[in-house]
Write a structure and sequence with these properties.
This protein is 39% helix and 9% strand.
Length: 241
């Protein structure tokens, strides 16, 4: 009976704290907001109102497709984040920005096609990363960079990420292509460079034309001045004679 009362009391306290301190209605927040459980709720996005001091956030078994940049940035104390079994297709480079305390990140069973090691570089405490059962595009060079990241962070193990049945950490990337974002960036740089070169050519041509015009005008002026002085000198000589 005493155990039952304690259980009821815990439920009441949890509901009260959630109402007072702003726990999302679709989640269960446990005192003192160490854990926030938002799994199995059919969520399409990360709910707002999650307490900043959360150390464990469960979002697995939902219908999340995208994660906005810096969506977890304010959770500086977050240690465990489960995003597995959703419908996530892409990961923004800054999606895990600010999670220096994170030790475990679960991303398995999604629709992720590409990952880049740079998106995990700020996770300095990370010891577990799972990426099993994602349809990774092994022609994308981002995955080769992710391979280098894994080789430099051996504490993560193999992560379960695979290409053609081979773990990425052991896969030989021989025919990878630059990602669309990188290609567009390069093309943008080339375009800007080309535009800048054209501007420089136009400016240079204009300066050249102006300089040539000034030279011609000055030359004509000196020529006529010389001819005028010559005629005056000739007249003086004729008068003397």
């Amino acid at each position: 009976m005493k155990t039952f009362r304690r259980y009821i009391f815990l439920i009441i306290c949890t509901v009260f704290e959630s109402a007072v301190f702003g726990c999302p209605s679709s989640c269960l927040c446990v005192h003192p907001f160490d854990y926030t459980y938002c799994h199995d709720k059919g969520l399409a996005t990360v709910p707002s109102g999650i307490y900043n001091t959360t150390t464990r956030l469960t979002l697995h078994n939902n219908s999340i497709t995208t994660l906005p940049p810096n969506v977890f940035e304010r959770f500086a104390d977050l240690k465990r984040l489960s995003l597995n079994s959703n419908k996530i297709t892409t990961l923004h480079p800054n999606v895990f920005q600010g999670l220096a305390a994170l030790t475990k990140l679960q991303l398995e069973d999604n629709q992720i096609t590409a990952v880049n090691g740079k998106m995990f570089e700020g996770l300095t405490s990370l010891s577990t990363l799972t990426l099993d059962n994602n349809p990774l595009d092994c022609t994308n060079c981002d995955l080769e960079q992710f391979k280098f990241y894994l080789q430099n962070n051996t504490q993560l193990g193999d992560t379960g990420a695979m290409c053609e049945g081979i773990l990425i950490i052991n896969y030989n990337f021989t025919n990878c292509n630059d990602s669309p974002s990188e290609t567009s960036t390069v093309n943008g740089i080339r375009s800007d460079s080309s535009s800048t070169t054209k501007k420089h050519l136009i400016i240079g041509s204009a300066v050249g034309v102006v300089a040539l015009s000034v030279f011609v005008i000055v030359s004509i002026f000196y020529f006529y001045s010389y001819q005028k002085r010559k005629r005056i000198v000739n007249r003086i000589h004729v008068g003397q004679n």
